Amino acid sequence: MSLELREVGEDIPRCAICGAPAVGPCASCHAMVCGDCCVLTEGGVELHAICVRCDRKKGRTLAPAWRGLLLAGALLLAGLALYAALALGLFR
């Protein structure tokens, strides 16, 4: 456990699994976890922490998160293309 200064009454985020002080969110489900309740992802450019629940369910992959990001980008591009087609059609 690291020692650091805290203000009186400061709300300390707690681990969603064991209740210890949390160090950050899970990269998959975004629940706050401590260092003992997470594992590091393998591969990739950066290291990400995955909680042990997500590790048991889905493994140490961020593929669902990347699929969601790519789907959101594709929907955004489709919406912009539709808007451009409508704008060009209305001004002719």
Labels describing this entry:
92 residues, alpha+beta, two-stranded antiparallel ribbon, two-stranded antiparallel sheet, 2 helices, 4 strands
Question: Can you offer a commentary on this structure?
Answer:
38% of the residues lie in helices and 11% in strands. It folds into two domains: 1-60, no CATH class; 62-92. It is of the alpha+beta class. Strand 1 and strand 2 form a beta hairpin. It is built from two helices and four strands; from the N terminus they run E-E-E-E-H-H. The strands form two sheets. Strands 1-2 form a two-stranded antiparallel ribbon. It has a two-stranded antiparallel sheet with strand order 3-4. The chain has helices at 52-58, 63-90, and strands at residues 24-25, 32-33, 38-40, 49-51. It starts with 23 loop residues before the first strand and ends with a helix.
In short:
It contains 2 helices and 4 strands.
The separation of the N and C termini measures: 67 Å
Please tell me what the overall shape is: elongated
Beta-strand portion reads 5-15%
Oligomeric composition of the shown chains: single chain
- Computed CA radius of gyration, to the nearest angstrom: 20 Å
| Strand segment tally | 4
Order of helices and strands: EEEEHH
Runs in which pLDDT lies below 50 for 5 or more consecutive residues are: none
Task: Tell me roughly what share of residues is in helical segments.
Answer: 25-40%
* Main beta sheet strand tally, sense and closure: 2 strands, antiparallel
Total of DSSP H or I helical runs spanning 4+ residues: 2
Mean pLDDT: 82
Tell me the strand order in the biggest sheet. Answer: 1-2
Structural class: alpha+beta
The tally of domains stands at: 2
